[in-house]
Amino acid sequence: MIHAATFFLSLGGFVGLLLAMRRHQQDWLSRKLPLALSRTLRLMGFLAMALAFALAGLGFGWGDGAVAWFGWLTIAAALVIVANTNRDRIMRKLQP
Question: Do residues 66 and 72 touch, judged by C-beta distance below 8 A?
Fold first, then answer.
């Protein structure tokens, strides 16, 4: 359960950081978000990753938790990068 929570918090953190960038807002949302919302998304992204680190550390011990956190963080980052590079294909499949 701690692995799943760590992964989803890491994934949510990277998605938040992705959507905090104006260029990616235009790509994914077809509009740019207000600056205050972008800052909030960036802050929430970093907080989600910090929470994932704390959760992994408390659940597995700080040594093993750091290793697990880096592993899940890497997988989450790879998924966000793959989704961002294949955005056009994903959007075409989602359209009716």
Answer: no
Averaged over successive runs of 10 residues, the pLDDT of the chain (96 residues) comes to 94 95 89 93 96 95 94 96 91 83
DSSP symbol at 86: T
Contact residues for 35 (Cβ-Cβ < 8 A; gap 6+)? none
Burial 52-72 (b: 16+ CB within 10 A, else e): bbebbbebbeeeebeebbeeb
**Cα Rg of the chain, angstroms:** 15
| CA 70 from centroid of its chain's CA atoms | 13
Place of tokens 């992204």: 45
Distance of CA 91 to the CA centre of its chain: 19
pTM of the complete model beyond 0.85: yes
At 19 the pLDDT is 94
Q: How far apart are CA 44 and CA 9, in angstroms?
A: 10
